[in-house]
Model the fold of this input.
Amino acid sequence: MLDASDTIIACSTPPGRGALSVIRLSGESSIKIAEKLLGRALNKKVNLVKLPLWDGYKEKCVLTIFNSPNSYTGENLIEISCHGNPLIVRKIIDKFLQSRVRMANPGEFTLRSYMANKMSLEESEAVIQVINANSDSALIAAQNTLNGGLRKKIKNIQKKLRETRVVVETLIDFTDEDADVYLGDVKEKIEFFKEEYKKFGKLMESSKSISDDIRVVLAGPPNVGKSTLINALTNENVSIVSEIPGTTRDVVKSSYIAEGIRFVLEDTAGLRKSSDKIEEKGIKLAKKAIKSADIVIYLGLTKKDFEDMPILKGKPCIKVLNKMDLKGYKDSKGFTRISAKTGKNLSLLKSLIVSSFLNFDLSEVVAVNARHLSFVKQGSKAINAISPSLISSNLELVAENLKECDALLGNIYDPISADDLLGKIFNTFCIGK
Amino acid sequence: MGVDIIVIGGGHAGCEAAYASARLKKKTLLITHDVSTIGQMSCNPAIGGLGKSHLVREIDAMGGLMANCADEAGIHFKVLNASKGPAVRATRSQSDRKLYSKSVRNIINSEHLLSTLSDEVIDIDLQGLSAVGVILKSGKKINARKIILTAGTFLNGRLFTGEEEEEGGRKKDKTSKFLAKSLQSLELGDSRLKTGTPPRILASSVNWEVLEKQSGDSPRPCMSFINSNKIHPEQMDCFITRTNIKTHEIIKSGLDRSPMFSGRIDGVGPRYCPSIEDKIHRFSDKPSHQIFLEPEGLNSDEIYPNGISTSMPKDIQEKMVKSILGFEKAKITQYGYAVEYDFFDPRNLYPTLETKKIKNLYFAGQINGTTGYEEAAAQGMVAGVNASLSIDDKEPWIESRSNSYIGVLVDDLITLGTKEPYRMFTSRAEHRLLLREDNADQRLTPYAKSIGLVDEKRWKIFQKKMEKVETETKALKELKINPAIFGGKKTEQQSILSVLKRPEATLEKIYKIIERPMPDKGVTIEIETSKKYEGYIERQKKEIKKIKKYENAKIPKNIIFKEIKGLSNEAKQKLTKVLPKTIAHAQRIPGITPATISLLLVHLKKEETPSSRKVGS
Ligand SMILES: Nc1nc2c(ncn2[C@@H]2O[C@H](COP(=O)(O)OP(=O)(O)OP(=O)(O)O)[C@@H](O)[C@H]2O)c(=O)[nH]1
Ligand SMILES: [Mg+2]
Done:
């Protein structure tokens, strides 16, 4: 369980050998504990100490002292820099564990920082995303969030939402008080807000995919060259290629980075009616992958291969005709022509994949995680439930939907009180008899 | 000589408090400057309105007197927001001033355990940090087990009209200077607020022909659950006029002599009910402001022009009034004035309204920083009931925010305090949909019955309503109609209950179509709303359940917030100031973050596990 009064320790650099490792010790008594263990005072900001670890071996470490509240966690904190050897790191940590110090839980340093009001919730989440980022854009996004970018975006949409709420609440609570607001204003404001929220929701969704990875699923009939394509695009031989239709059964994954974004490609079984039990299972897996894909590359050889594909409905999809090197190859409008075997037009395909995602400025992108996105989506549900007839008959329910959306967004960082809202009303409208 | 409960003050808070404690069988004494002023409406002669009528109905559901008096004295009734849903509909009534106070006095005087006394209380008699009685001006002491102070605007009241300034809590009434002084020495956190009134106008001097008329509703609604509109006296109309550019210029020309702008009044006024000089100053581009002309009574020749409260000098008031349409020849019968008065920081009160510092001393009404008769009366009810329950050693009456506006009111006051006169609005209640004017009886009457606060008559009426709701709901579930009558394609017949979910469908229309006799409005609204709000109510109930968990997480009385590790200094200060009793309460303190709450929870968990290792063995 989380206990804020304990002193905690953990190695903050990745495990393994290297020039340096940094161990963090945090807690109210961290400095006292270290002083006792070392038998000397740590009164300078940076202290060079010799720490006896084994008989005859003393490790030279640098102890940097951060006094509360000016540290990452807001508590007294020491950073111990030692040689980057796992044995040494473990021995040092062991020493402290014997002196009223316990191992930190994952993320506990950041948790404490959040507890000390040094960081807001979404900022501490971004720390984790900074650490886990596996592409440039994910890192930029995480950093933007860490610098308050996500909160700014949410506050911005909440500001618009509250302008709408102010009008609705004024119409409810000050109906007999000459406030100069009318039902027509509400209808207009809500229509406007719905549009704004749609845009906001889209940005959040694209931001989420950037922070994660983008899942690109290769699909199409058997033997059209899907496996050849995944090998070519990722420059790795991960999927079996053969002239026998129905070769691929499992979903085979491989990835590459373009424009700072990591794309995870998934090769799937060719789609057809099959009596082979195993192939049938593979096709099921393929369909599942298509459904959850961020984008589908549908591969075929002729236009006919693209007829009657209900599964692709509503999915971002790039239609590709393969084997353009073959004689008798027929071109068709609206298709991208490639040869997976010769590599022709593959860079064009790559840039098509990127541009189908990057229709916004990268510096604008913030790190959005699943928790955030689920609030944004629930909010969208609440907003879309407001119909014109609801506005006419039950304005109090409209208010309820708006409030719900506001609260959902607030869950991402912090809530609004009724008093703030009333304050807005008084500043906006001249109210009172 | 001694009584169970002394109530100081005969305004709306004092009367509800005294009436409630007497009904709970406590020997009660109400002391006020002049018993003939009991139940006076010192501001405008109206009761109800958004958020306020909700309070009135809750007081009524608890067996209080305000709704009944408003019915007996009501000369104009209107349901506001009639075109919106039931949760935000609110009844507003105009009262005949004389009839209203007469009705209050009748009820007060007929309660045999309740007596009244004209006198001035100059001090609270203390034994250590417990109140044991009051000291009158003559030096005489009266003992009591509980004291409820409802001094309104009388504590150090000062009245302002232009450059003139005098002592008083209300025109023609004395102020309580001595009591104010002795209370100050108790250091309960007093500061100043202000409120204002408009000039009153001679009705016969108004040119009514040119004014817009507003008639009351028909059928006429009632304030009380147990009244029929047959008890209403004769009805009157209200009228509407507006200020104009000329009015505004006249006011601007006198601003330098206004006590508000010359800085002689320090008290903070309400933002939602500003003086006319405030309005034209803050919203300078608005060319005109509405004035609602309220009759003062059936036989009164005075008009209350609601909307031009002012403390401008008399000559400016004259000119300003005459510049308004219909007022060209108006005669002012009493000039408008501002009142500045002491109030005490309500964060120093428990949810029972007992002061944290002085045991057995309760504060209710305007001295807690509220404005409005309804807010005052609600607090009077809370203090009166809790003082009585405490004498009987019974569990206190603490309303939750999700069960009543009374709960919202008290919780807002004791948790947030207030910087301006606090008024109720429906938007203050986060569970607004559950707190309807028409279901206050369902929310409160069963509790009131359980502590002996309501009589058989009210209980029977309530039970009958609930039985009817049940049988009628069953019947409507069986009966079927075609939903197409409310638009859309013709489909199969559906149960009336499910058809009700459509925004356009109302029971009134349906009863007409199926030619079934319509039950009482209270019954149909309940059935209709429980269907229309279904999904919303489910969600709110879920939220409430979550809150309940924290509501049940009690914070021990002896906790020392300063010693909890990890809390920021700011959080420590705020928690120490409010002394929240539950985690849910702590959560509502402004500036207390979720992180602080987690730390508190961790701390409580640790305290909870008995440190058995230290004890024994
Ligand atoms: N000429 C030519 N042959 C190709 C091209 N791409 C793939 N092939 C050949 O087509 C055959 C099928 O290739 P795969 O990549 O295994 O096809 P697949 O779509 O993965 O097939 P399944 O896994 O059975 O669904 C192999 O013999 C490939 O060498 C191309 O661009 N040009
Ligand atoms: Mg394959």
